[in-house]
Amino acid sequence: MAELEITDITVGEGKEAVKGALITVQYKGCLADGTQFDSSYDRGQPFQCVIGTGRVIKGWDQGMMGMKVGGKRKLFVPAHLAYGERQIGDKIPANSDLTFEIELLEVLTRDD
What we know:
This protein has 112 residues and is mostly beta strands. The chain contains 2 helices and 6 strands. The protein has helices spanning 40-43, 58-63; strands at residues 5-10, 22-31, 36-39, 47-50, 72-77, 98-108. Strand 2 and strand 3 (36-39) form a beta hairpin. The relative contact order is 0.33. The mean pLDDT is 96.
């Protein structure tokens, strides 16, 4: 079974993403063949989510940990850490491995 692959394109210098943090990112998601299925850049609006608590796919929960603001990271997310056997809309077939390029813009924790 394929594993999550994390590649830092740029290492950030800012605040670190930790479990339970609200993160703001820009990202692009592609299927294994390079077909783009989603992009916050195209929507012109960053994406916010809480990380490490099961609100996003496991690949993001695991792959965003320790990333710092200002950083850019590429995640290869095997199907079992993405949507598994579920088809998502008409863009993501069942059992799809996904690749994301993610830019971390902000991290907010309860202390902020």
